[in-house]
């Protein structure tokens, strides 16, 4: 067999945790090989071993059949291994070419000579259909283009094996399609690709074979043509996974949250919510569908007290909460799973245990007369960690050290545990794998069944269709349609989200 | 594997050792005997009761200014204005000390409290500007240092004296000086202030680590957005952090005004107590206990250095270089961390 990369029986330990154990990864020349696993399963660790950032405790790496010792990324580069990072490593104010040659600048009489490099970049760009302008400044080009610059960087350095670390996480659907074309043309030219991902759809679409890792263990390698998403998902999670969450019909009661004529301005002073009306009843999940930037964030910030409203009112159970402080809103029975969990949801440098009481630290039994009771806090934290299956070495571990899915589970544990009347979930599953998504969806439905009102904001139509009992379509600062998920489809929703009214959409 | 805790202790110790070794090398280069130099330093700090008393005297304000910087840093703020807050505290304590005639049980606490309030007020202004207008605290506090210096000079000359260069001595009822301690240490300037300093270290530890206020301050220091989301009042916490930090700094001023000197004189420049506090906090890893240890080290170096020219012929300036080197090595702790890890890897 003609393997270009072989990682055999790799084991990598970190203090208190085995990140990789007995993992085999064999990549054939000219294939797209998926590396699939949940968040925190050890995919990134394995790739960092291959890229020379970590040294494995056991196991060997072979490149083109020869055993090599990759001690640092320079060795990896010399072996023709290139990595396209998830977070781009680019200098904003430099041009594409300047970024590409950075670190190995072609010099002529002591000055940098970019002419030749520009030609090379142009040529590479054309050969692989990347369509990148070598003279453009990074800050002027789109995220998708920036990613191509990262790809060019590895190609310019002579990479034969490209590692893509969750490349589609930051892309729009259109850009994803283009990226897939690029990957296919790379393979056609004889390159090999390792694609790190937890998105099954992408694997089915572009990959030849797929290696699955679960909790640091190598599970096995399968031919993509001989498998299906359901099988892959259960390999990844270790049990059967359902894609559409089971739920009974909603039994909505009285209105919990009612918003009348709400107007909110954003940071720049531009009105983003323009006279919005919305009602969420107890025992139902209302999904807000809409294209990003139509005032969704401002709406949620206004409800939770993070942003002042201009006019209109927000009532919770007949109690006016308009322009209350976030703490008062919280104490009125609102829980908020924020869109950006790193910025708003957690103090990353605090232990995960202390993050569990971020809103309730000033109440009994977590403190008394201004003095913290850490014993009670960590007791509570341990209970929540167990109940919500937050995988962490212990409650004293900084939140930063947890994987995204586990951070999110911790936040959801904290928010749901307060027994709120209203749960606002903003993109609760962004960037998470199927296992975590399933868990979170289940929890939200459970809360609905307990008679709580749930307001869901998501940019994933699948999620909106799946979870909502009622879909409110938001466009240009207003709710322009209220539809039942059973009576609509993605096409109609798409038209509505683009600003077409119900009649027009229905009439087509 | 080293635990994080051990690491945090190990890094400053290695920094100090490296600083001392570099100091020895520099002494050798300039033709001085490092062994004689360091033993003169040691004797200058601990050689007899007088030197020991002076060392403690020097350590006292360092602890407080170190606590001031550390407290602000734990709340995510860089208080460069400790120097100015020391001036205000010093001024306020002396002012109360010379203007009232009260029994000691009222007078001394009042003078100390006044110092804390004056320092707190000098911290409140940059805190308010940061919280309400987003003005960076470093800029404001640097400016406030100069205002404090010239304002206190002017007040000493025009209000607290008749155009003289110094105030009269504070009343005995407001003094921290102690005949008993002085006699025991051959008339060094040691005073009761070190008890205040140690007490305040305990106070800082308690506030930061044990109270809800400290939890909020640290949370705001790490992540303002998450703190606001969680219902904390970010502006209030920024101001509070600067006020408490300023109060510690003001107390450092009181140590000088009521203890070491017993008066305030016109200054041609900064005392450096506040600026050294930045180094003390850094070396003490921003913890109360660490600050005490670091303040001792700085006090020993400062006082011990006075003995080096006479006993070993080494210029005092060299000690300044050694202190600078220690700070350099602490600031580059990343480098030391890296070296330790490297050694560990090879040891495996």
TrEMBL record, chain A:
GO terms for cellular component: plasma membrane. It comes from the Bacteria. Residues 5-240, 257-501 form the ABC transporter domain. Gene3D superfamilies: P-loop containing nucleotide triphosphate hydrolases (3.40.50.300). It is a peripheral membrane protein. Pfam families: ABC_tran. InterPro entries: AAA+_ATPase, ABC_carbohydrate_import_ATPase, ABC_transporter-like_ATP-bd, ABC_transporter-like_CS, P-loop_NTPase. Keywords: ATP-binding, Cell membrane, Membrane, Nucleotide-binding, Repeat, Translocase, Transport. One of its GO terms (molecular function) is ATP binding. It is found in: Cell membrane. Belongs to the ABC transporter superfamily. This is ATP-binding cassette domain-containing protein. It comes from Halobacillus litoralis.
TrEMBL record, chain B:
InterPro entries: ABC_transp_permease (IPR001851). Pfam families: BPD_transp_2. GO terms for cellular component: plasma membrane. GO terms for molecular function: transmembrane transporter activity. It is found in: Cell membrane. It is a multi-pass membrane protein. The chain crosses the membrane at residues 7-35, 55-73, 80-98, 104-125, 190-208, 238-266, 278-301, 321-340. This is ABC transporter permease. It comes from Halobacillus litoralis.
